[in-house]
Design goal:
Blueprint lengths: L2 H25 L4 E8 L2 H14 L5 E6 L5 E6 L4 E3 L2 E2 L7 H12 L4 E16 L2 E14 L13 E7 L9 H13 L3
């Protein structure tokens, strides 16, 4: 891919992200919004820009699953060596929520009642002079079953556990703590 093609891909991805972000945020109310910035290699930039141009989301769709006891479900992602929310890639025939539900089933095997969007993160991606962005949708759902069963076809997820206090090695920990405080303080 030439540099001009990379610029075109970044522009195309940005347009797709804009459309996806507006559709997502128009359908939901009362969610948190964040911005994350990533500086990546040229190859990684191309991969992420391709994902965004296809779905609007560089890292797929995810779910915050909670129990009324104020615990959150996290899965251990061996590839990044961290606790993360269940979630992942979006297939061409899926909505963000459908992808989040499928990924929850694969990575944790619990059933949950989906309540809406919890977090919409604008994920800015940069490689030198090239930049684009995508949306990272995170839905919230109350657990209906609570015993995790791993069925991850990618083999990246090696554990799933409930946490009252989030471990220090939790991806996007600050965002999850903020969401948790807002969610559970409103129920008091």
């Amino acid at each position: 891919m030439t540099l001009d093609e990379l610029w075109f891909l970044a522009t195309e991805a940005e347009q797709r992200a804009e459309q996806a972000y507006h559709r997502l945020t128009e359908r939901h109310t009362e969610f948190l919004e964040f911005t994350r910035n990533y500086e990546v290699s040229r190859g990684r930039f191309r991969t992420l820009a391709n994902r965004v141009s296809e779905s609007g989301a560089p890292y797929g769709a995810h779910t915050i699953v909670y129990r009324p006891s104020n615990e959150l479900l996290l899965v251990w992602h061996a590839g990044v060596d961290m606790w993360v929310l269940p979630g992942g890639g979006i297939q061409s025939d899926e909505t963000y929520r459908e992808a989040a539900e499928r990924e929850l089933g694969e990575e944790a095997g619990v059933e949950a009642d989906y309540e809406g969007l919890a977090i919409a993160t604008r994920t800015a991606i940069r490689c030198g002079d090239y930049s684009t962005w995508g949306v990272l949708p995170v839905f919230q759902a109350c657990a209906e079953t609570t015993t995790p069963t791993l069925r991850d076809p990618d083999g990246e997820i090696t554990d799933a556990k409930w946490f009252a206090e989030l471990p220090e090695n939790t991806r996007d920990r600050e965002q999850l703590v903020e969401w948790k405080e807002e969610k559970f303080s409103s129920r008091a």
